[in-house]
Amino acid sequence: MDPVIRIENISYAYPDAERPALDGVSLDILPGTFTAVLGSNGSGKSTLAKHLNAILTPAAGRVLVDGLDTADEQNLLPIRRRVGMVFQNPDNQIVANVVEDDVAFAPENLGVEPGEIRRRVDNALRQVGMYDFRLHAPHLLSGGQKQRVAIAGVLAMDPAVLVLDEPTAMLDPRGRREVVAAVEQLCRERGITVVLITHHMDEAVRADRIVVMDRGRIALEGAPRDIFSQGQALRALGLDVPDTAALIARLNAAGLDIDPGALTPEACAAAIKEALG
Ligand code: ADP
Ligand code: MG
């Protein structure tokens, strides 16, 4: 299968920076997959995210979105339509005083016709579980609700790829769960390609693939079961393992035989139950 985004050996340095923020990164994002990007502060995650929809373009190497080179200005609009971005602070992403107007904002600017906008807005709000709030004022919503409205605003552009840069960093645990559940559902049920940057290992266990950044490079890459069995390597990179991985390691050290890939709480509980017979 052709990747929806192909990153070919890209490097990028901010003006006056001592070292490059990205230093030879290559990565293929396959359509319909869920990729989680981890890494300590300053490892280059946000800089990488901004290369996925041409907010930044590489100093060396190239990024292709559906084969379109992000360095070619003529590709800017088609790339922005294909790759939607959600950022950390939901308050900075809300532009209207009514939820449905906020979600309609981007397609209106794209010149989508009104009937189609109505359909897209309703669909997008349903997909993130916010349809019942369509006439509410966004600033009165919880953080998790606001962030889901922001996601709906991106979905209304009908993107193939959703890139989320620490969308749960400012949310309480409940808001985090709501947002991650919505994102996971968009990938699994709607086939949207997801790239989720996060500090939370428990969010990353839901991904198909994990990419760990360190000082502008990819330090580790693989399936959650392979990445999260490398506790030592992760700690050396300033990260931890998910609670479930730590629990499974302890139980297995104590003589149980639990699948180290059972990393979501649901899978972990089922695997423990089975091991205890
Ligand atoms: P992360 O998202 O993983 O925390 P970033 O991509 O934001 O990492 O940053 C990578 C590196 O680039 C860091 O060293 C950071 O200080 C630097 N950096 C990020 N944004 C800027 C900027 N606007 N100007 C200069 N340096 C920056
Ligand atoms: Mg960042």
Question: What is the compact description of this entry?
Answer:
The protein is of the alpha/beta class and 277 residues long. The protein contains 11 helices and 10 strands. The chain folds into 2 domains: 5-241, 3-Layer(aba) Sandwich (Rossmann fold); 242-277, no CATH class.
Descriptive account of the structure:
The structure is a single chain. The chain is globular and about 60 Å long. The protein has 2 domains: 5-241, 3-Layer(aba) Sandwich (Rossmann fold), CATH 3.40.50; 242-277, no CATH class. The chain is of the alpha/beta class and 277 residues long. The termini are far apart. The strands form 2 sheets. Strands 6-7-8-3-9-10 form a 6-stranded mixed β-sheet, sandwiched between helices. A 4-stranded antiparallel β-sheet has the order 2-1-4-5, covered by helices on one side. The protein is built from 11 helices and 10 strands. Helix 3 (99-109) crosses helix 4 (114-127), helix 3 (99-109) packs parallel to helix 5 (143-155) and helix 5 runs parallel beside helix 6 (173-190). The protein has helices at 45-51, 76-82, 99-109, 114-127, 143-155, 173-190, 201-204, 224-227, 231-236, 243-253, 265-275; strands spanning 5-12, 22-29, 34-39, 60-65, 68-69, 83-86, 161-165, 193-197, 209-214, 217-222. The model has no long low-confidence stretch (mean pLDDT 96). The chain binds adenosine-5'-diphosphate (ADP) and magnesium ion. Magnesium ion is lined by residues 45-46. Adenosine-5'-diphosphate (ADP) binds next to helix 1.
